[in-house]
Design a protein that fits this description.
Low-confidence stretches: 1-6
CATH class of the largest domain: Alpha Beta
Strand content: 15-25%
Oligomer: single chain
Strand order of the largest sheet: 3-2-1-7-19
CATH superfamily of the largest domain: FAD/NAD(P)-binding domain
Number of helices: 13
Structural class: alpha/beta
CATH architecture of the largest domain: 3-Layer(bba) Sandwich
Helix content: 25-40%
Mean pLDDT: 94
Number of strands: 21
Largest sheet: 5 strands, parallel
């Protein structure tokens, strides 16, 4: 059996209808791929922007940059778009580009195995219905499986208990004692948003974070009218945003003058926001700038000046009916507990069992940690591509840029398969190994491999989530696939 007979496209299955999956479906449909199915585990599209509805949820990349280059939105209300607007934007894209009829909802993929004889993938969904694909594109993302710590006694707590990504929309925190466990990306958005309404807010912090100013504001009607009328202004503004974000890649070289300057300025900003001398030490990080995710907020640190907000750095011992007890045996009463404890990132694609050649599990191939060539292809797993895969996350720019580059790269490879009647394509092992060895050498020159624990690293200390180069370099590497990097049949 051949994938491409004559002038036909292969059958493609995309797993996940978040930003990456939607991008892939749109681009491939535009290219003429008609036999395409998107398998989505939920009953709606959107991925992380569907799930994260907590107060203050918003993007930390400028809205005109955090959108598809082929689908500009002139109606963004703010510099940093709030969650409902991003979700609406994605829903509009699905409708505008007509890919809604390709999405199968409630189809959580649990198993995918490659049939070497027939050269296709057999995908099993939780519904029990098998799907066959000649090309498998996995776009599950890295921020979709909440990390829920197992605190002793949590089951005995009598109040509301939820992860930030599982926010209970009927939960009214007005006048309540709210405990927020965690002080990173979700927490810096939630805490200032609810601080005015709660009776008391207790923030549990394990490690302080680098927090830079968030220059957010609403766009005026005049600005929006100008962008609607003169589209080149939006293109120019997007380019300026991109270049500004790209400049900050240099800040993640800890020994560079620019890196030291950015760290110095950020420390000044943080001190001015904290003001209280007793809080400067617990809220100031002692590790290199960028080792953990740099957060954006102009209100989080200032919030701790309020009388109804407390910072707790003691380790949690257990829960009881009334709240949280720390190791020093102090009870912190709570009516509502919110876990802002992040996601399982380093065990990519879990809990899907993906089996390639010789029935080998991807989890076995990734025993030391997830690795892929250009973050997209894995030796031993033919005709499979990853979006937002290992080492393609960013600490300084828009992930949508990376996703669009990956989708374009995959499209060009499929185009070659179609033209040359190739039925199977698999990255060469030596190509992937050389690429990843060089990548980790480069990683050691950045802040991301520094002296801290972060979700960028796996248990062995290998940085598996972040791209250690500029996005310009990723564009260069993916601009034109080299068929010589692959085994083909």
């Amino acid at each position: 059996m051949t994938v491409c007979e004559g002038d036909s496209w292969p059958r493609v299955v995309v797993v996940g209808a978040g930003i990456a999956g939607i991008c892939a479906a749109i681009r491939l449909r535009q290219a003429g791929v008609r036999d395409l199915v998107v398998l989505e585990k939920a009953q709606a599209i959107g991925g992380t922007w569907r799930d994260n509805i907590y107060p203050g949820a918003a993007c930390d990349v400028p809205s005109h940059l955090y959108s598809y280059s082929f689908a500009p939105n002139t109606e963004w209300s703010r510099v940093y778009a709030p969650q409902p607007e991003i979700l609406n934007y994605l829903e509009d894209c699905v409708e505008k580009f007509g890919i809604g009829n390709s999405i199968r909802y409630g189809s959580e993929v649990v198993d995918a195995s490659y049939d070497e004889e027939r050269r296709h993938w057999r995908i099993e969904a939780a519904t029990g219905e098998p799907v066959v694909a000649e090309i498998l594109i996995v776009s599950c993302g890295q921020l979709h499986r909440p990390n829920i710590p197992e605190f002793p006694g949590a089951d005995s707590f009598s109040g509301r208990y939820m992860h930030s990504a599982q926010w209970q929309s009927d939960c009214d925190v007005t006048g309540k004692n709210v405990t927020l466990i965690g002080s990173a990306a979700s927490a810096v958005q939630i805490a200032p948003e609810i601080a005015d309404d709660v009776g008391h807010l207790t923030v549990f912090q394990r490690t302080p974070n680098w927090i830079a100013p968030r220059f957010d504001r609403a766009y005026s009607e005049l600005e929006k009218r100008l962008i609607r009328r003169f589209r080149f202004l939006q293109t120019f503004y997007r380019l300026l945003n991109y270049l500004f974000q790209e400049l900050f890649f240099l800040a993640f070289r800890p020994n560079s003058l620019f890196g030291k300057f950015v760290a110095f300025v950020t420390r000044l900003f943080m001190r001015r926001k904290i003001k209280r001398e007793d809080l400067i030490e617990p809220l100031m990080p002692d590790y290199s700038f960028g080792c953990k995710r740099v957060l954006l907020s102009s209100t989080f640190l200032k919030m701790f000046r309020r009388e109804n907000v407390s910072l707790v750095t003691r380790e949690i011992s257990h829960f009881d009916k009334h709240g949280v007890v720390t190791r020093d045996n102090v009870m912190h009463k709570a009516d509502v507990v919110v876990l802002a404890t992040g996601f399982h990132v380093t065990d990519l694609l879990a809990p899907i069992d993906i089996r390639g050649r010789n029935n080998r599990l991807l989890s076995e191939a990734w025993k030391r940690g997830p690795q892929a060539y250009l973050g997209m292809t894995v030796p031993g797993f033919p005709n499979m591509f990853l979006l937002y895969g290992p080492n393609t996350g960013l600490g300084h720019n828009s992930m949508i840029f990376m996703i669009e580059r990956q989708v374009e790269y995959i499209y060009k490879l499929l185009q070659r398969m179609r033209r040359e009647n190739i039925s199977e394509i698999e990255v060469r092992k030596e190509v992937s190994e050389t690429f990843n060895e060089e990548l980790q050498v480069r990683m050691n020159q950045t802040s991301w491999s520094g002296n801290c624990s972060s979700w960028y690293k796996n248990e062995a200390g290998l940085v598996v989530a972040i791209w250690p180069y500029s996005t310009v370099r990723y564009w260069w590497l993916t601009r034109n696939p080299e068929l010589g990097d692959y085994l083909t049949r």
